[in-house]
Amino acid sequence: MVHQELPVAVDAMGGDAAPDVVIDGARLAVAAGIPVLLVGDPDRSVDPVAARAVAPWVVTREALPMDAGAGAVRAMEGASIRRCLAEVRAGRAVAAVSCGGSGATLVASVIELGLEPHVDRPAIIAALPRADGGTLYLVDAGASVDCRADHLAQFFELGSVWARLMGGALPRVGLLSNGSEGHKGSKVVREAHAMLEGRPGYAGQVEPHAALAGAVDVLVADGFAGNVFLKTAEGMVELLRATFLRELEGDPAARASLPALSGVLAALRVRLDWRSRGGALLVGVTAPVVIGHGRADAVSVGAAIRLAHYAHTSGMVEDVRRALSSGASSSVGSGGPA
Amino acid sequence: MVHQELPVAVDAMGGDAAPDVVIDGARLAVAAGIPVLLVGDPDRSVDPVAARAVAPWVVTREALPMDAGAGAVRAMEGASIRRCLAEVRAGRAVAAVSCGGSGATLVASVIELGLEPHVDRPAIIAALPRADGGTLYLVDAGASVDCRADHLAQFFELGSVWARLMGGALPRVGLLSNGSEGHKGSKVVREAHAMLEGRPGYAGQVEPHAALAGAVDVLVADGFAGNVFLKTAEGMVELLRATFLRELEGDPAARASLPALSGVLAALRVRLDWRSRGGALLVGVTAPVVIGHGRADAVSVGAAIRLAHYAHTSGMVEDVRRALSSGASSSVGSGGPA
């Protein structure tokens, strides 16, 4: 009997241009050798026959709006995102992807998959570019808004595990703060700093600009500060683009020189446009879930599916379980092996 | 008898290139008609005779290091920043400027000047560029790290007053948050949102990228999240600059086109380099204090002195007092006049 690899379950109804953009993204992933299971309504596609040919479907007619609150997610058991995650829970898929609302995906993931044994709060890991050309993994990018110090210590482990799986031998992990000295930081950050001091890889409190410059590989924050960091970074890219375009308007000579810059500007776009990064990884639940952008295009959806697939094949969930079951005993001690 | 305008007291010893850069900045302010009082050690200048000719001096040989903690600030009563603020307290100067450490300036300001009657926490107002060409006033940019909801409600008043004095008739004031819906935000942000709802000018919870795009004129945050916002914005400008330069390196044709872009790039620099903005305004203490950049150049120091002078002549402290003494009664009510 031939061993059949289990698929990544993909919420076909999530995202501003669902289902067709999601179906196109699934087609790209399948072409790259990743088995996909689509969950949703193929008849909402512009070409239902072609949609059905991309991958097997779990058909459901129900879908949540992008801004669905926790109550709606709990109530609509048949919603595509719930069914998508239920496939993972039932062992018929190994990971899930949705470009629907991140809040809805988070709530649905906790309901359907549950949290890992030693995890008290789920977290979202987002990848950002750094000025030195490296990648910064931000954890938590917005899942758990009000956190205690021990939650941040768990995020330290979650981020370390993922950065190692993404190729960093001994990732440097910093705590997002308003200063690099121990007496800075909010009360919770100072407490977390005291818990983490001495742990291998802990790089202390780090200011946002230092993290973006390359001082650390992983940046730990509660979901509020982490989300502010992420959305400020995104907003600044937009601000710089808008300011650049406005200045160009009044300067015909500068405009005329733009064709020569097209390669540089395209490279900047690839490096800085979050849509080219696939999505963010939800960690702390019992299987990998990738939260794609609501405005994802097909390439971005394909990248999100690849990311979910890699999170599964790399053994991310098992590594998190191991790190936190040993971390659970050391978190009250003097900083044992991470 | 000729009425003599009282000077702005300037800490000559604060900043990486003190005292000479500060003295040069004072010279620019004096040339613009603003009386200045320099506080520090003119003999540490490369040209003590010229330094003494710029403005009157209060001579002190003591100065605090840039990273001085609160204890050092309390202990060194003769430090230039303390003496500078003592001149304001004694009524011999109307406002103060320092490019020394912002933490030291904050602590010294509270010691020497004290807080306004209805202010529980001081705040720093920083001005940032917006994508629509406007200015965003951030309050608090880093003075008061752990805040309660009623502190944020005070910052709402402080920011509104300043934005009005800077030319906004009815400034739109938002609460920095991870979402724009009322159920988002940290516990403290949700509480502050409930306190502020219905107040004139209150624009609700605002996400960082929306604030940078132009959704509000004033952004209210605790000093932790506000500082993360500010330093992420600064870090992204550096990241974009570094990425642009790196991409240019491998692209000779693009490099050759740069001269045509020089006007656009210079305009971007003026708009986005925080050093061109003079400094941030400390509010909530009994007189205006401007915290200049540690790496300020002379033009930036001059702008900081002008900012302090304007904060005095515009009646900022009196307006804050009025707003908060009426706000103090309405803050527990249903949102009276701001």
Q: Could you describe the 3D structure shown?
A:
The structure is a homodimer of 338-residue chains. Chain A has 338 residues and is α/β, with parallel strands linked by helices. Helices cover 45% and strands 14% of the residues of chain A. Chain A contains 13 helices and 11 strands. An 11-stranded mixed β-sheet of chain A has the order 3-2-1-4-11-10-5-6-9-7-8, sandwiched between helices. The radius of gyration of chain A is 21 Å and the shape is globular. Residues 328-338 of chain A have low confidence and may be disordered. At the A-B interface, helix 8, helix 9, helix 10 and helix 11 of A face helix 8, helix 9, helix 10 and helix 11 of B.
Describe the global form of chain A.
Answer: globular
Sheet with most strands: strand arrangement of chain A:
3-2-1-4-11-10-5-6-9-7-8
Low-confidence stretches of chain A: 328-338
The most extensive interface between chains reads: A-B, 66 and 66 residues
SSE blueprint and pairings:
The structure is a homodimer of 338-residue chains.
Chain A: E1 8-11, H1 20-31, E2 36-40, H2 48-54, E3 57-59, H3 70-75, H4 80-89, E4 95-98, H5 102-112, E5 123-129, E6 135-139, H6 149-165, E7 173-176, H7 187-196, E8 202-206, H8 208-213, E9 218-220, H9 223-249, H10 252-256, H11 262-272, E10 279-283, E11 289-292, H12 298-313, H13 316-330
Helix pairs in contact in A: 1-12, 4-5, 6-7, 6-13
Task: Describe the structure using short key phrases.
globular; homodimer; about 15% strand; 13 helices; alpha/beta; about 350 residues
